[in-house]
Amino acid sequence: MNEIHLEEKELARLAKKASEVDSLLLSAFGDAPSLKSENLALELIAAVLSQNTSRANYEHAFERLVERFGNAKTIANAPLTEIEKAIRPGGLSKKKSKTIKEILAAIFEKSGDYSLEFLREMGVSEARKFLTSLPGVGPKTASVVLMFGDGRGVLPVDTHVLRTSTRIGLVPEGTSAEMAEPLLEQLVPPKARPRMHLNLVRLGREICHARNPKHGACPVKSTCDFFRHQVHGSVLAI
To answer: Would residue 85 show up in a list of annotated catalytic residues for this protein?
Structure first.
């Protein structure tokens, strides 16, 4: 994973700002719930289904898939057309059904089973390396699985997290999601990362929209670079 290298003084400044943002979001939205699922393989499948669709759609698709097949082994051995049919409400069902089959085949080839529970015994770097070695699994998806599936102190960067953290001024403008993740993890302590992720996502969904953000309702406007530029009449296109 690529990283942005900043001077120690700048990192300290940004870490202080991140702490302030975390406190403001905590006051506005609350803390993160306990995150740990019973089945990491199914968590990975859910993460694949969540790509490029709404939360409601992917959750419906995942529920249909689990109701139809029950577990990762059964899904792995099911006909591709049946998987596609089950996940159709989530969108991109042809592509995602193929990806799911390829992922499960790769897990079996590497471990002799369809389980990913062994990841719980690995460190974050090792677990990320294994997950990103699977077909169709990038850094964000790997971090989503580790955070939601095993409660790890990681900070996945999706569209909302990237937009809000860039506008606030925690990451440089033009930074990719892949490069923003390790930078944000330098700025935010492990215990606070899941909360920061969830609260930045909520900020992006409810207030900091790509177009027409609701500045008046923003809980972090006091420390937001984008808001400050807006107030002074200079619009940033982020």
So the answer is: no
